[in-house]
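Posting this for the archive.
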Amino acid sequence: MKILIITICLTFASSLSALELLVRTDSKTVKKIDVSELQGVHVNSECLREKNHCLKILSQEKKVLPKKRTDQTIGNPASDFCHSAVGSSIILEDKKHSEYDYCLLEDKYFVDSWDFFKKYKK
């Protein structure tokens, strides 16, 4: 009986970590992105499939980019960090229209910008 309960709990817990997000590729097209956790960073299934290559990209040295802002506002540091990794900031949303800031690397790896920033900022 204990094994069955543990199995159910693990299955339930692992289903909570997977998340389906949506990205708009143009005004009419929406693409689904399945997101799971990889070493403390939420990434898409493509990154999980190519785990070694994706982790190599995440951990490589970031290029320091000059600030382009001319005003006195403070930007999003996770987004700035994404750009220093030669990525593109992109907003994904869930079915309830909650928004998530993601970094798109090599046009195929979606990585949660804040997870990426917190784990790999040096």
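Confidence is low (pLDDT under 50) at residues 1-16. Helices lie at 2-17, 45-49, 51-59, 77-84, 113-120.
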